[in-house]
Amino acid sequence: MDFELRQAREKLEREQRERMQRAKAKAERERRGKAEAARRQEALEASHRERRLDAARAQEEADQKMEEVMQLGKGVSFSHMFEALRYDGPGDKIKLPPSSFKELSDEGALDKGPMYFRLSKVRDTVPGATMEQDTEEATCSGVLEFTAREGSAELPLHVWNNLFRSDTPDVPLIEVKYVSLPKGTYAKLKPEGAGFSDLPNHRAVLETALRNHATLSENDIVVVNYGLLQYKLKVLELKPASSVSVLETDVEVDIEGSDSVLDNEENQHVLAPLAIGKVESSVVEEGKFRYYKFSVEESVSEKVASGRVNIEVKIDTDASGGDTDIYVSRHPLVFPTQHRHEWSSHEMGSKVLILKPRDSNLVSGVYSIGVYGFKGTSKYQLSVAIKDVNGQRIGEHASASGSVDADSVLCSNCKRHIASRSAHLHEAYCMRHNVACPHDGCGVVLRKEEAADHVHCNKCGRAFQQREMEKHMKVFHEPLQCPCGVVLEKEDMVQHQSSTCPLRLIVCRFCGDTVHAGGEPVDARDRLRNMCEHESICGSRTAPCDSCGRSVMLKEMDIHLIAVHQKS
């Protein structure tokens, strides 16, 4: 009996312990569940709170950005991200999509005059992170038209090169903001290489290049083209702001000297100064040029024009296997070449070139000398001198010292008048030792041992020594291709590039700039007035007449003054 009671008691105690353990476990589970629910609620509230703070910060940044955009745009809010595309065009005017035109029109930007934009490069700093604006690579521009495809902006080379200077990403993204720029009053630029200051009227050349620009920004690189040459200038300083408008304003331009050293500019077009009467020594490699410049004063030009003195360019070369040619031109042709020059000399070895200006009124000024390495590496000494003619002009033969003797006969071999008493003796000696060149129009008398070295070009008929014929054929008769596509021989190429080549440089009679001439004008009247294509277009601009105030085309102004105002 006691045993059964004890078992019943133990069973009851065991069941009570198990119920207590289950109750404790249930309470613990409920406590942990409540704690987990509280933690989750707290985390959720913290997440919502962080999101609200992020949204507030984003809204604040957006408001601040909008305020900045409004301030930059003087009340016009336009800021978009575009994919950058490149197109070949001058200047700094970009192309935007048509939707931008509608948005700008709705904002009233069209009523505020020329539109300007600030372009900045956008980069992705961390994969998956938000895009950030690259403040180091930014520039300003105008707008050309609204024809780009949606989501993209087309940039000319000037803007593209200033934005993507180091590398171009696979998908270049830029941020375009509408801004209001002040009119520029001062600009300081610095050439990145030597030679720009050698250009005649280089400020006018720079002004012509800036006509295609609407803006300038500090640290921009401006490219100036002069014929086939290209110069880069960095914008160092602008006033009154770091980015300015250059439309319809007078800007004071200051051009600093280049840091480049002449000795390190072998691959560039640089004019080294050459004083008249002094000798310059240097070395030129085969196929390369060395350029020099010298000036002729007005007092000397009068003597040259009257024929009392000559301008003599002399080059002495070492007989070490090398050979040089010299080409000379008068500015505005700054850098003479094989087929763009006014004077040249192609003799082998040392040579002297007499400069005879075609127009006696165009003698004074700056001249350029190009020393060309024709063969091998040549050491040379170059000098320019003003020499007296001494009563005999270069190219004229001195008159005979005495009259022809009446008692003389003409040698049938050398065609000289010989005294009749010694005619038979002279003719026998002359026939034995001398021979006349049989080439039509030559007739020069040579020693028989020298006759084999005397040859004529089968194309132009000029006479040379045998060793000079190879150079003559290469220089004068090897076909040359002009940048405009025409293929001609040397002399025809010189004539072509000085008179008919559309890429030749001229000084426009209307704008005064050095520009490409272009082809023939469409208007027959302009062709009769010896105008080129550029002058025909440039002269079509109108200007008010000083006498009556009427707007008259520049190329018709002289006719207007004669026909209307009877002014000669």
Automatic annotation (TrEMBL):
Listed GO molecular functions? polyubiquitin modification-dependent protein binding
Keywords annotated in UniProt: Ubl conjugation pathway
Presence of keyword Cell cycle: no
Q: Which Pfam families match?
A: TRAFD1-XIAF1_ZnF, UFD1_N1, UFD1_N2, Znf_XAF1_N
Q: Where is this region: Disordered?
A: 1-53
Entry keyword annotation includes Ribonucleoprotein: no
List, alphabetically, the InterPro entries matched.
Answer: TRAFD1-XIAF1_Znf, Ufd1-like, Ufd1-like_Nn, UFD1_N1, UFD1_N2, Znf_RING/FYVE/PHD
Q: Might you name a Gene Ontology BP term for this protein?
A: ERAD pathway
Which residues belong to any copy of the Ubiquitin fusion degradation protein UFD1 N-terminal subdomain domain?
Answer: 90-182, 183-256
Q: Where is the TRAFD1/XAF1 zinc finger domain?
A: 531-560
Q: Which GO terms describe its cellular component?
A: VCP-NPL4-UFD1 AAA ATPase complex
The family assignment reads: Belongs to the UFD1 family.
Q: What is this protein called?
A: Ubiquitin fusion degradation protein 1
Species per Swiss-Prot/TrEMBL record: Panicum miliaceum
Give the classification, highest ranks.
Answer: Eukaryota, Viridiplantae, Streptophyta, Embryophyta, Tracheophyta
